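debug: dumping io for the single-chain case to check the tokenizer round-trip. Nothing else runs in this session.
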Amino acid sequence: MDPDRERRRLVPLAILVLAPSIALSAAPPPAADDGAFVITKPERTLEQVEKAYAEMPPVRYTPPADRWANLPRAAAILGKGEGEMRVVMLGDSIVNDTSRSRWEDLLAKRYPKLKIVKVTCVRGSTGCWWYKEPGRVQRYVLDHRPDLLIIGGISQRGDVDSIRDVVRQVRGRPPCDALLMTGAFGETDPRDDERWRFEVDPKGTDYRARLGRLAAELKAGFLDMQAHWGKYVRESGKDLAWFKRDPIHANERGEQILGRILVEHLSPPVPGQ
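debug: decoded output
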């Protein structure tokens, strides 16, 4: 089964089943009439985040040195290290799991003079094939004036053309970088050599390869989250279920894998620093 497709039986985004030891610090806002959520407030406290991470083996991820080449606006803002950087995260419930890690606050500790404003726009089991339709890019991306748009999740249906459409709708407006991420969690088991591998043939036909080529075509950033999330799980010595709250989604520990990889990807060294 294509790893970036969620089954219809997925737990709806509005129902977030969490381990009882860690409760949400704030309920998500009501969904819009179309089922999407626009989340602007943290759903976990920093104390909850740190408690979860303290239970885990450290996340170690070394980002590619050339990652800033296609993130010029983010590099300029982070290189300056002050002011404000606005971020929109767009996608499905897996994107929301990544957002819930509070990665932006962890990153802000490395840039103490910089304010990071994050808006998470998500809809269960949904990818850019839905967001590209008239009015939705305006509502869920452009209205929030991002400097950086992060697109990810496991619900893209392998449809890189729709991702291209969304990025092109954003381009040409106020300057905005795009960072494209492959999926994580879902039904993929990184311990299964037949269903997961770290390396991907860059000329291959699978979604990860095609998304990497799309990022190069669009001069967008690229983060192969599936590779690095899977590598962490394999090396952690923990059972996969220890990182999940249900068969598809990350729990508070799984969220930290995703968030801490993203933090490292957007951390120094930045050109000019």
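debug: round-trip ok. The chain is about 35% helix and 15% strand.
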